[in-house]
TrEMBL record:
Binding site for Ni(2+): H2
Record-given protein name: Hydrogenase maturation factor HypA
UniProt keyword list: Metal-binding, Nickel, Zinc
A Gene Ontology BP annotation from the UniProt entry: protein maturation
Binding site for Zn(2+): C70, C73, C86, C88
Molecular function terms, GO-annotated: nickel cation binding; zinc ion binding
Function: Involved in the maturation of [NiFe] hydrogenases. Required for nickel insertion into the metal center of the hydrogenase.
Encoding gene per record: hypA
Similarity annotation: Belongs to the HypA/HybF family.
Top-level taxon: Bacteria
Length: 109
């Protein structure tokens, strides 16, 4: 379960930036192609925030879809998974989104 280590890193960064202030909400962007399971991440968030300034905070997860650009036909298309094939049949594609894993914001107070 790699979600635990990812979530622990997020909580560590958030707690450091909060500088002792209670954290109410943490918003993250986790692309569909990262193989991170949102429900697992929420479970891990509750575990890793226990005893910290982020305990009880809400975790908001934005999941942008995977998209790619085909170098052969110049089309942009959506990826449902990591099968990197353009509808034209070409495998010469460049992923343009869906691999994001970032903290977007946090609300303290």
């Amino acid at each position: 379960m790699h979600e635990l280590s990812i979530t622990q890193s997020i909580v560590d960064a958030v707690c450091e930036r909060a500088a002792g202030r209670p954290v109410r909400t943490v918003s993250v962007r986790v692309g569909m192609l990262t193989a991170v399971v949102p429900d697992s991440m929420r479970f891990c968030f509750d575990l890793t925030t226990a005893g910290t300034v982020a305990e009880g905070a809400a975790l908001e997860i934005e999941q942008p879809p995977g998209t790619a650009h085909c170098m052969a036909c110049s089309e942009d298309f959506t990826l449902a998974d990591l099968v990197l094939l353009c509808p034209c049949g070409s495998a010469d594609v460049r992923i343009t989104s869906g691999q994001e894993l970032q903290i977007i914001s946090m609300r303290v107070g």
